[in-house]
Amino acid sequence: MSSSGTPGSAYYQSGRSQTGLLEKIELFLPGFRGYKEKELRRESDKLVRNQIYMKLSDSLSKTKDVYRSLVNQGVTETWDDTDRLSARLERVSQQVNHSEYGYAGFFDIVKVKEPQLDQMMDYDYKLLQMSDSVGQAIDSLKDSVDNERWNEARGKVLAATKQVDSLEEAYNGRKQVILGAQ
Question: Which domain covers residue 101, as residue numbers?
Fold first, then answer.
């Protein structure tokens, strides 16, 4: 097993440390260890992507609150952009939520080795960081709207939209990482 010590591998190591006694014994069985290690990595992938989804769902909820505030205050020059931001954020969060866990489809086609799985977990960790950036941009937008700084709001909507677009583009690049193209 490669233990690269990278941020994404921390999720794997956490999952590995929580294995039961029977699972620890099974890790020593010939042939079973590689299978179990891949399963742990798949579970780690699921946990990371679930965190991304939860963060995006929280951001989506805040974006919808911002949209309602803009409509209620009659700030027409910003609400269309906010509605589009909300739709993009919902699309990306659903894409993350409904994608296959554990790189399942890739294993059917390509024999994936542990270093590739570690690379994928690191990539997912970067996606998690990007989802934090989306959340920060949405929080900044919400702060502007909550404090009726309408002149700032449109620029913050556009900045948040760029963050969401970057996350979506990066998320769509996951398949290339597992295939070794990145």
Answer: 7-178
